[in-house]
Amino acid sequence: MSLHQLVETQRQYYKTGEPAKLSHRREQLLKLRKILKEDHDTLTEGVYQDLRR
Length: 53
Known about the structure:
The protein has 53 residues and is an all-alpha fold. The protein has a domain at 20-53. It is built from three helices and no strands. The termini are far apart. 0% of the residues are buried.
């Protein structure tokens, strides 16, 4: 799935007004936390490159 398709899918879902199930939201947050921990150095370098701070 391309980025454009992914964004469009998310927009369609958002327009339905249906909230995400708590279990799904929790799963997504846990995945995000894992990514942030595993790729901390890469993310920090990317922010530095963007902001020069």
